[in-house]
What does this fold into?
Amino acid sequence: MSSAASEIKRVTTHQLHAMKERGEKISMITAYDYSMARIIDAAGIDVILVGDSASNVMAGNETTLPITLDQMIYHATSVIRAVKRAFVVVDIPFGSYQSNSSEALRSAIRIMKESGAHGIKMEGGKEIQESVTRILSAGIPVMGHLGLTPQSIYKFGTYSVRAREGEEAQKLIEDAMLLEELGCFSIVLEKIPAELAEKVAEKLSIPIIGIGAGPRVDGQVLVMHDMLGINKEFNPRFLRRYADLSEIITGAMHNFIDDVKSGDFPSIEESYWQKKEG
It folds into this structure.
């Protein structure tokens, strides 16, 4: 853990803003359960995202759409129990905020009250303006999400890079400025040209977190299962693998199976015995 990270007892939105102001990059990773969140938090990560990507990596769904609000609250509650330092943001899942702002507020309140999360994340710009305003008015920190928004995958029809063309790029800039004006504390930009992401980061005073958005933003986020090599089917250009846990776990399983089959496990020292009388 860096000395800067160790000096912060609990990461807050204020500290994230201060990090941007002094040019310190923000680290962000996903987590969905107590055990992994405990390890990640102790390592000094700044922000933990309880992402609706749990639908993919935890439940095996093709998209993020099937995961429910109850399931997100379950994952968020597990993560919060483990965290002592990081700022924990929770995705509001598809179908829990799109219909109207009243439903959006109810969903956000449930996440905050039932899980103890520190903030929520929502996909979209101008089209969710009313919902963002109502949630912020309740005192709930909101992180925006623009660019490739996985909850809208069937509208896009592809996971390719977004905002390459002028009109879509201009809308993204306008949406980002609107989200800042409304009071969002940060925005995630996913899979957009690096030049556009840099422009947004320069224009806005709030932290801009990238995933496939180039190096010139205020921080970076990856899905834990991807960067640790647990999920090996997903190989986008922006992904850097920091470990190959799939190979490590497979090797450990093979060793365990072999030891059980051969009778080598458990050993005498790994067994309990009745005490001898006398």
About this structure: The first strand starts at residue 26 and ends at 30.
